[in-house]
Every structure is written in C-alpha cells, then in structure tokens.
C-alpha cells in the first residue's frame, strides 16, 4: 500500500527543459510559448525559453526530450475511504494507480463507501473531520486528496455547518446520497454550507448506491449546489430535455464523469458549447464504484470528448485541469507563475496514427505518460498503465 510520499527536505529548484509543447490548462490560452519551466519550493516561478530563465541552483533538472508538459490532471469526483484502499472493490493502491494515469489531485464527493458509515449528525461530522485530516496527512504517492465531504442528513442545523467549517471541512458529499432528497431542504442546507465556505455538489440522475434515489432537474435547480455532480448520470442520466434545462437554468459547474452515460456527456458538452459556457464543464471518474477503479478514467474522458465531441485536444485537457482548479478554488491545474508545480509529462502513444499528441488524442488515442511531478518533486516516471510513449523525459541531474 502506498503511504506518505517523500517531501522536499530543504530548498528545491526544479527545471524542466527541452519541452516540445506546454498546455496551460486555461481555456483562454491553452497553449503557451516556451520550452522551459522553473519551479522553486513547489511553486512555478518561470515559464519561457531556456536562454531567458534563471536555472542557477537547480536541484532537479528534467529533460523533457521534446514531449508535452501539462498541469497534473484533477479528478473532480472520487469516493475515497481509508488510505489507498477501497472496500467497494477491496482494492489497494488505487490512488497510486491514478497517479500513473496523470491524476495529481482528487476531490471527494463523499466517503460514502466507509463500512458502517454513520448517519447520525455527531458521527457524520466526526467522520468528515477525520477524513479531511487523514487524507491531507497521508498523500498517497504525493496525490493531493481533498477529502472530508459529509453526506448531509435532515436533522442537521446551521450550527453543524459552522462547526464543520471551523474544523477544516470544505466540501459536502453528494446531496441526495443521504436523507436530504428534496429541493427546499437541500437549498437551505446548501445555503448554510456556502455561508461558511463549504462547497457543495449534488447527485444527479437515477440512484447509484443503496440509499440514494432519483434527483431530477427540479431538485437540482432548487438546491443550487456549486457543482451539478455527474450531470451525465452516475450511472443513469436524466433525459436530454432535463439536462438542457439544468444547463440553461443555472450557472453552476457541470460535471461529466467516466462512470456515467457517454452519450449524455457528449450532449452536455454540445449544449455548454452552444451556450458559450465551456468554462463550466469539469471532469471526474465517480470511482471507486460498481464498475471498478479507472486509473485512466480522466485521460479517457479527455480523449472521448475530444474525438467524439469534436473538441480540440488542448481544450479538452483544460476541462480536466484549469476549469476544475478555478471552480474548486485550487492553486494547481494551471501552468502559471505562483501555482503549484504539479505536472504530467506526456507524448503520443507509440504507433498512434496522429502526427503529434494533440492529433493523436483527437483521433481517440490515449497519450503515453512519461512522468508525473507534484509540488516540484518527481513522483513517477514511465507509467505502468498508459500505452508506451513515443518519447519519454528523463531526470538528467539531481
């Protein structure tokens, strides 16, 4: 089982040179000009040409060998439980496997698979605080797991949300997975959460786990959560007219997940594009789940939306990085000075018919991952899960 990842023990300076392509994660400018990135003490300090940046005192130098550097991928919808183990599939090292799929940050949509999960108010609050503390301390493989997302129950009062926020809870689990399933009650509690800085997500579509139920457009719109969780269903999606109604009726995040209805995901994407609202679209896996663990789930969503949704690959990667970072108020997901030095270094897979990584992804192929970096520290090199890349980066000095 993957335990605490190594942390920098002193001042660090990472230089990534000889980059072939930099994907920024930002919709407004998805491709950056430059061949070098510098990060000091886990934060990006320079992006540009090798001859123009300061590399003096580098503690780690990575030769990208002409490959692509993108922000580390963000999974906006996971269900962690205890460390790097999931009882849902009785599988260990699932988070580490996601790291090999380029995911460097995860957002919990509720620790709902915890055996014996408490439903009483005291118990659910205690479990939320525990999960938030445990996952921020553990960091499996270095992955940043934002956990501690309580599933709300009807007996809760405003003081409960104030107490949780004061103790570090910043997320709500999917509204609808617990006893709160009606619009008025959900809206009241989401308002309390927002008042104290807690971000909310709602279950959308048909039931998934025992205890959940149908959440239709009327409940979604009235609840007004910050994120419309798996708008393409988890697994069962709402009808197209209800999905369009949600897209048009609110300005909240529209989350598309791997473990949902692919046709509905493409319909949502088209609708958001027509509205000029691509910035609202974010990606998750909704795993671990009954369909298993998907280490390459975010990459597969990027490839599927690009190839079948006719979305330029550099834009599709923004949905898995910068869009989520901005919506979730994270300091990663964007290659910008001052942001966390979290990167995935990729190239087109060997023998892909695409001329380059972007064309390859738009043709429906997955890229090959050659390295992941979190907080300026190299965490993995050649991925054990993706197809082998045409070219791979290497650490040339440390």
Blueprint (SSEs and pairs):
Elements: E1 13-17, E2 21-23, E3 31-32, E4 36-40, E5 43-48, E6 60-63, E7 68-71, E8 73-78, E9 85-86, E10 91-92, H1 94-99, E11 103-108, H2 121-138, E12 144-146, H3 158-166, H4 183-195, E13 201-202, H5 217-223, E14 227-228, H6 240-249, E15 253-257, H7 262-274, E16 281-284, H8 297-308, H9 313-319, H10 322-328, E17 343-347, H11 357-362, E18 368-374, E19 377-380, E20 394-397
What does it look like?
This protein has 398 residues and is of the alpha/beta class. Helices cover 27% and strands 20% of the residues. The chain contains 11 helices and 20 strands. It has helices at residues 94-99, 121-138, 158-166, 183-195, 217-223, 240-249, 262-274, 297-308, 313-319, 322-328, 357-362, and strands spanning 13-17, 21-23, 31-32, 36-40, 43-48, 60-63, 68-71, 73-78, 85-86, 91-92, 103-108, 144-146, 201-202, 227-228, 253-257, 281-284, 343-347, 368-374, 377-380, 394-397. The strands form 5 sheets. It has a 6-stranded mixed sheet with strand order 3-2-7-17-18-19, covered by helices on one side. Strands 5-4-1-6-20 form a 5-stranded mixed sheet, with no helix packed on it. A 4-stranded parallel sheet has the order 13-14-15-16, with helices on both faces. Helix 2 (121-138) links the parallel strand 11 (103-108) and strand 12 (144-146). The longest helix has 18 residues, at 121-138. It is globular and about 60 Å long.
